[in-house]
C-alpha cells in the first residue's frame, strides 16, 4: 500500500505501536514514534534513518506533550495521522485492586491519549485535514471479568472517540476507534500489571481467568502486522469507519454483547418509557 504523509505514533517501541510504525514506513510514510528510553529511541531511528524519528516521552507528563508535538511539526512537517497506541493492561477484580492502580490506568490509557489529541488538533484544524486513530480494545465493548480498570479506560476512549468524531468532522478531520481482540503483543505478558489476590470468594471466578490469560500470552490468534495493515487501510480510505473491530474474537464477543443488549432493552422497554410526564 503506497501512502504519503507523517505519522505520529505513541507507544512505538513495542506491540501495536511498533507494528504500525513498521508498516507505515514500508508504505512510504514518515513516522515519529514516542518511546520510553534513549536506547529505544536509537533503536527506532535505526529502522529508517531518513524517515523514522523517535522522541522519548512519557505520555503521563501532560505538560511536555504540547511542546513535543509543536517541535515535531516544526522539524518534520505536518502531522497527518496521530495513532494513540500507548497503553497497558491492568488485571484484578475491582474489589481487590487498589484505587491508585485505576488512576494510573486512566492516566496512561485515557488522559495520555486525550492530551496527545489536544496537542495535534489545533494544527489539524487549521489545515482542515487529519486522521486520529485511538487503539481501544474489545474490552471497550464487553465487560470481561477481571479487568475492570482496563475495560473502563477503553470504554471511556471509545466514547471520547465517538464524540470527537462528531465534533471535528466539519473540519475535515477523521477519527477512528480501533478495538482489537487478542493479539500476540506483550499486553498479557510483561506489559500487564496484576493486582495480588486477597479475597478467597473470587477464587472460583478469577483464578481460572488469570491462569488462562497468562498461559495464552504469546499464543493469541491475532497477528499485529496484519492488524497494522488493516488500520492503514482505514487511514487510506476516503470514508474510514468511526469504529473498527479487529479479530474474530472481538467480532463475536461484540456481536453477542449487542444482541444481548438489544434483547434487554426490549424486555425493559415499558419501564424505560414509563418515566416521562403524562
Automatic annotation (TrEMBL):
Is Zinc a UniProt keyword of this protein?
no
CDD domains for this protein:
17beta-HSD-like_SDR_c
Keyword Lyase, does the record have it? no
TM segment ranges: none
What is an example of a GO molecular function annotated in this UniProt entry? Answer: oxidoreductase activity
Tell me the keywords, alphabetical order: Oxidoreductase
The superkingdom listed in its UniProt entry is: Bacteria
Q: Which InterPro entries match?
A: KR_dom (IPR057326), NAD(P)-bd_dom_sf (IPR036291), Sc_DH/Rdtase_CS (IPR020904), SDR_fam (IPR002347), SDR_oxidoreductase (IPR051911)
Task: List each copy of the Ketoreductase domain by range.
Answer: 5-163
Query: Which NCBIfam families does the entry link to?
Result: PRK06180.1
PANTHER family from the entry? SHORT CHAIN DEHYDROGENASE, SHORT-CHAIN DEHYDROGENASE_REDUCTASE FAMILY PROTEIN
Protein family (similarity comment): Belongs to the short-chain dehydrogenases/reductases (SDR) family.
This protein is called what? Answer: Oxidoreductase
Q: What organism does this protein naturally occur in?
A: Bradyrhizobium cytisi
Amino acid at each position: 500500500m503506497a501512502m504519503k504523509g507523517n505519522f505520529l505514533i505513541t507507544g512505538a517501541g513495542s506491540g501495536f505501536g511498533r507494528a504500525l510504525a513498521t508498516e507505515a514506513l514500508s508504505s512510504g510514510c514518515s513516522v515519529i514514534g514516542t518511546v520510553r528510553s534513549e536506547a529505544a529511541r536509537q533503536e527506532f531511528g535505526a529502522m529508517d534513518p531518513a524517515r523514522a524519528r523517535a522522541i522519548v516521552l512519557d505520555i503521563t507528563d501532560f505538560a511536555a506533550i504540547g511542546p513535543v508535538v509543536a517541535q515535531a511539526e516544526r522539524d518534520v512537517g505536518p502531522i497527518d495521522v496521530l495513532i494513540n497506541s500507548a497503553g497497558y493492561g491492568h488485571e484484578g477484580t475491582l474489589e481487590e485492586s487498589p484505587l491508585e492502580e485505576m488512576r494510573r490506568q486512566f492516566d496512561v490509557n485515557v488522559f495520555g491519549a486525550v492530551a496527545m489529541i489536544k496537542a495535534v488538533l489545533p494544527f489539524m484544524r487549521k489545515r482542515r485535514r487529519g486522521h486520529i486513530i485511538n487503539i481501544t480494545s474489545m474490552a471497550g465493548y464487553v465487560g470481561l471479568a477481571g479487568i475492570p480498570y482496563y475495560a473502563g479506560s477503553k470504554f471511556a476512549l471509545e466514547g471520547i472517540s465517538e464524540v470527537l468524531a462528531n465534533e471535528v468532522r466539519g473540519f475535515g478531520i477523521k477519527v477512528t476507534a480501533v478495538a482489537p481482540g487478542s493479539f500476540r503483543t506483550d499486553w498479557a505478558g510483561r506489559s500487564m500489571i496484576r493486582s495480588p489476590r486477597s479475597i478467597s470468594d473470587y477464587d472460583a471466578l478469577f483464578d481460572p481467568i488469570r491462569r488462562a490469560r497468562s498461559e495464552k500470552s504469546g499464543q493469541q490468534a491475532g497477528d499485529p502486522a496484519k492488524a497494522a495493515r488493516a488500520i492503514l487501510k482505514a487511514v487510506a480510505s476516503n470514508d474510514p469507519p468511526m469504529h473498527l473491530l479487529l479479530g474474530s474474537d472481538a467480532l463475536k464477543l461484540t456481536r453477542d454483547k449487542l444482541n444481548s443488549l438489544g434483547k434487554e432493552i426490549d424486555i425493559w422497554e415499558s419501564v424505560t418509557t414509563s418515566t416521562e410526564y403524562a
